[in-house]
Amino acid sequence: MKKKRLAVVAAITAFVMLCGCSNTDSSGDTAYVTTSETTTTAQIEAPQTETSITSITEKTTAVTTSQQTTTSQTTTQSTTTTTTTTSSTAAPSTQTTTAPIVTTPKPQTTAPPKTTTTTSATTPKPQNDLSQKTVEEILQGMTLEEKVGQLFVVRPEKLGGSATQCDSGDKNGLSKYHVGGVCMFGQNIQSPSQIKSFINGLQSASEIPLFIAVDEEGGRVARIANSAGFAVKKFASMLSVGNTGDTSQAYNVGETIGAYLKTYGFNVDLAPVADVNTNPQNVVIGDRAFGSDPSRVSQMVASAVKGFHSKGMICCLKHFPGHGDTKEDTHKQSVTVYKTWEQLKNCEMLPFAGGINAGADMVMTAHINVPNITSDGLPASLSYELITGKLRGEMGFGGVVVTDSLEMEALRRQYGDAKSAVMAVKAGVDIVLMPNDLGTAYNAVLNAVKSGEITQERLDESVRRILNLKRKYGII
Questions:
Q1: What angle do CA 260, 265, 271 make, to 5 degrees?
Q2: Are 263 and 281 spatial neighbours (Cβ–Cβ below 8 Å)?
Q3: How many other C-beta atoms can be found within 10 angstroms of the C-beta atom of residue 28?
Q4: Residues with catalytic function
Q5: Quick check: 381 pLDDT over 90?
Q6: How open is the CA angle 118-122-126, to the nearest 5 degrees?
Q7: What is the mean pLDDT of residues 193-201?
């Protein structure tokens, strides 16, 4: 009996030493065992009889009999090590449980995932916030003051700063009045680099990008071509172009002028002249017009419009309803034309119709009286009958209507800046051009909207046209 007990103890000791040892990694530290390491197959020499294995498991608490398995799993919640053994004699599988072992996980030595770093030669410039909005969204997000400001295009010095560079005075004026644009004259233009810098500074300082306008008709009215230091093509006059009878020459005028204006930062040319020069005593139009034949002038105007558009330049027909049959100058005094509407339609209106059909973006009104056409007794720039009734209604013009300069004596003497600005907007004008006193004109329109004299709908109508034109040409 004693020998038998010794044999049993020896068998238990051998079995535990064989099955109960823990896994270690190559460094000798205890490591968590992965699934692939847990399942092992060992060819163990089994005892001679199945009964002898059974008697061992019955007498030890270290060994328990389990169902036959081919794999076992190790969990991180416990340190139980499971080993599956298979006997060559198909003996039942045994599962051995060792005492818990407290271990410290060894850091993984697997290389971290590769990261890809993308570099760029240039950082994309954020898009203008307005470019992400529709015109209607921009309009609805504007204050009343901003809307009123869009109706004004002014001389840059009227903002309260420098006439040749964007300084703090100009910036303050832009912030205060929110103007829709500026118009450059000879005194604002010194050199190519100066005008580019001036325009860029003004655009950067304005919350809503500006119309940058200029009178560049070609011939004697050309602010860039007639300034020293600008190596651009000059044209003798529009009359000389019209006299060729070649409409491609008029197209070339628009194309050439549009191209060089673009390089300096302009986006609006207050040209071409659509007047028919029928009065030899005319002192203000003369050779600025393409001629005295309405059909030829109409063809020339239409071709010039297409030329401007070929270079992405906004253009403006002037001076509605025709300044060619006058002998007085609206810069200095009131001017009256006594023709009827039927007479104008057969002559003066032909170039305007031709230009509108060619896609002209703007029409400028003249400060001339036409008593045989209207009953209101007002200059064209202030006449609802002429602007809304004739130009928009009868001729179908849906673009932007701009007044001639409010600085001109034909309006200033009788109406002044405040009254002129309000009356022009009520008549259907979209842009009030160059009031002599910006603050007076701006506040007059603002107060007229607040009081209801100018309705909110009427204001939005003009601002919408202005924004649509700016959007069309990529200004906003």
A1: 60
A2: no
A3: 7
A4: 331, 404
A5: yes
A6: 100
A7: 98
